[in-house]
Amino acid sequence: MTVRDLFGNPVCQGKAANLTLKLNGGPRFLFGSGKLPETAAESRKAWMEERRLAAEAETAVTPLPVMELEPNEKRSFEFTMPSGSRAIWSETPEFPAGLRVRTGRDRVSGEITAGNGAEAGVVKFTFRLPSEDMPEVIRWLPVDVGRRSFIRGGSFFHDLREFCHPGVRVEAEGGVDNSGCLRLGGPFRGRIHHLEQLPMLPGRPLRFKAMLKGRLSPDVRLSFHAAMFSGGHWAGTWRIAALGEPPLEGKKYPGTPLPLSISPDGWHEVSAELPADRLPGKALTLIFYIDVNGGEAADWLLIDNLELYQ
Fold it and tell me: Is residue 35 situated within a structural domain?
């Protein structure tokens, strides 16, 4: 690249990686190498090829359904993969069922035997396809025993595909049991949505659990919500727990928000329950979200063992 001043005089020339621009001497004009369009075209071509391979790999492995079992129930599963693929699997800690897996050249099958309690867990399958050019394919098999989970990955054993917000990430360590956890960095601004809208079960209370840890400035406003809908229309919102937020009242806001206590020195457990008779109607669906605003750059919040279920 060549750098010139306002009058067209050359200031310096060399590779872009080795140049440092100092603007205190007035404006500067950059003239790139003639290879820049060629380099950009090559980069785009490589990126498009990566996307093509990723899409081809994703369609090669069957999606996995959620498995809801009653206590002590046994159920089989089977799905296909390209011939010659290799499958690797692992369960979340305290997986609520017995798991047996068999692999063949083009399929994975097995049985899940539920335990006695009402618990939930996830099995992670990683597929390595026969072609070395293909990326790995990851599939999640959520398992609910005696309950319905509205948050499938609250142990953050896997990724954030259930959530939608650019300011959050999963940390591989640092959780309650030194496994994954959700991290939010300050300053905070926005709403973190859980993407899936699931039908609720009639006649059952709605329960919430979470472990929280963090450094939050006094002006941070944090709250957890379960918004319920009937026939496509909003029926009510349960503000489950709140920090720095006034309480909501009225029949559209069932339940009383739980005050939060959060410290950087240790994990704080939060649990709440909305009784079945406080649910705002029947044939409900639910969306979970977190509102967090305020704070400064030094603030942070960790969330782990996040559960919302009936």
Answer: no
**Rounded alpha-carbon distances, angstroms, from residue 220 to 239, 290, 295:** 16, 13, 5
SS3 at position 6: coil
Domain containing 87 — which CATH number? 2.60.40.10
Q: Is the same domain home to 126 and 184?
A: no
Contact 259, 241 (CB under 8 A): yes
Q: Which domain holds residue 100?
A: 67-145
Is beta strand 74-80 parallel, antiparallel or unpaired with respect to 10-13? unpaired
CA atoms within 13 A on the CB side of 18: 6
Q: Residue 270 burial by CB count (10 A; 0-12/13-18/19+): exposed, middle or buried?
A: buried
Q: Residue 298: which CATH number?
A: 2.60.120.260
**132-180 pLDDT, tens per residue?**
888 999 888 889 999 998 887 676 765 555 666 666 666 666 677 767 7
Asked whether residue 138 falls in the same domain as residue 191, the answer is no
126: its two tokens? 């990683």
Distance CA 141, CA 305 (A): 18
Q: How far apart are CA 241 and CA 105, in angstroms?
A: 49
Residue 38 lies in a domain: no
What's the structural domain count of the chain? 2
Q: Is residue 51 part of a domain?
A: no
Per-residue pLDDT of 12-48, as tens digits, reads 888 877 888 777 777 888 877 667 677 778 888 988 9
Residue 33 lies in a domain: no
Q: What is the pTM of this model?
A: 0.74
Place of tokens 């799905």: 79
Interior/surface letters 226-243, b for 16+ CB within 10 angstroms, e for the rest? bbbbbeeeebbbbbbbbb
Q: Are 75 and 144 in contact (CB under 8 A)?
A: no
